[in-house]
């Protein structure tokens, strides 16, 4: 269900399964070595097991990305800008 | 080339990635993106669920007499993914946009507030239509060159293509829609600043942020080189001796005018090969007045993208009486820009700090010797060839520019120059660090750096 998508403006969009709390302090911690990431906020986190290696550079170049949550009807419920931080 | 994923967007290609290893990235081919206003598909796909599975061959889509029916693709994407938010909206067709540009008829321009707020529908169209007129007006400006005028046209077209209107209406647009607002703000800025290119398109000479296509283009290659060079203990020694030897600046001031001219031609060829068209990547200055001249200075502040400034001495003065052709210096410094990892130095723990504490400015001179190795070898080889061209000397001849000293052994700079130029011919890669990381290259540099007796004499040394 989830995907990363880059549009023509170089914006990076990360799509997730529903159930995540959208908070203003949301950030994506990317571990380049393990090719994984974790979307974190003060009281919740969501682990992404695989981040395609080709995405590392655009993620670094953007530093912020749009996180979108949708339900099973493919309807966008929530969107939020999150900060991208590289760890590890 | 991995680093081209980002710049691919600048060439109208969209790539979709899944977070599941089993789903391969999906690419909308360039030939399709070129024909359709790319924003149309991309904005629709912004809300797609995941990369399409199965047959990825878009060419099999139903085609109109024009070849491809893009409106059909757009609506198919919306229907397939049930994109509710987009269902009630539709983009303007290409013909409508052309018509908007040709038969513009703008209303009287009265909103000089520039308050970044579309007050109502009439106000929205007042700004957009007068903005279209302003795009036409700047085409007559003497302050802009051909490329800049073209860029005004392209950006205006792009902005218009992004707009959406309420379905079933001709000009009713949602004023809270992100893309509509972006279009409004662009044309408002254009009306305010007209042919002030830097203000309208937000470009200053020599200022590059981490979103620029050259920033970090080959940072992976540089990281691999750093790692691989650790297995060759004498390479760092070689890099130190080479970088700190000013004899490598072999062209004298007497030849500077001609050398600068030739080096600028070389720069343009290099940019063409690298597929770089932006000629505002550097600004011209002097080393006497500008501490940051001939170096890359990085600037970062929380909330802003990492930026660098690139100033080049307009005469080719590299300090202490040494000269290097301007074009060669620019290439050298841009090679450093391509090495730089495009992420700020901000760490998760910085979240606890104030904005001022999290700010950083790094030295204009990178202190990593390995990062200097490739660009310095490149400069040496290129300047050696320029020198020989100016003097009418055969490029394979080894000239005496002085030596690099390793223990009791001397290595001739002229020999290194000829050898590395041959390596550049043998491995014509766009990434300088990828070339230096070749086994053949690292072995030779390591051997030289070890001070043991060196390779085969390439040819006889000739006095300059």
Q: What is the secondary structure topology, with strand pairs?
A:
The complex is a heterodimer of chains A (88) and B (464).
Chain A: E1 3-6, E2 12-16, E3 27-31, E4 36-41, E5 44-48, H1 56-62, E6 64-70, E7 76-87
Chain B: H1 4-7, E1 14-18, E2 26-28, H2 30-35, H3 38-45, H4 70-80, H5 84-87, E3 89-91, H6 94-102, H7 121-138, H8 146-162, E4 164-166, H9 178-193, H10 197-200, E5 207-209, H11 219-229, H12 235-243, H13 256-274, E6 283-285, E7 295-300, E8 307-313, H14 326-339, H15 355-358, E9 360-362, H16 369-391, E10 398-399, E11 403-406, E12 409-412, H17 413-426, H18 432-436, H19 439-450, E13 461-462
Helix pairs in contact in B: 3-4, 7-8, 7-9, 8-9, 12-16, 12-19, 13-14, 14-16, 16-17
Description:
The complex is a heterodimer of chains A (88) and B (464). Helix content of chain A is 8%, strand content 50%. By secondary structure, chain A is mainly beta. Chain A has a seven-stranded mixed sheet, covered by helices on one side. In chain A, 41% of the residues are buried. The model of chain A is unreliable at 71-76 (pLDDT under 50). With 464 residues, chain B is an alpha+beta fold. Helices cover 45% and strands 10% of the residues of chain B. Chain B contains 19 helices and 13 strands. Chain B has helices at 4-7, 30-35, 38-45, 70-80, 84-87, 94-102, 121-138, 146-162, 178-193, 197-200, 219-229, 235-243, 256-274, 326-339, 355-358, 369-391, 413-426, 432-436, 439-450; strands at 14-18, 26-28, 89-91, 164-166, 207-209, 283-285, 295-300, 307-313, 360-362, 398-399, 403-406, 409-412, 461-462. Chain B is elongated and about 85 Å long. Strand 1 (3-6) of chain A pairs antiparallel with strand 1 (14-18) of chain B, so a sheet runs across the interface.
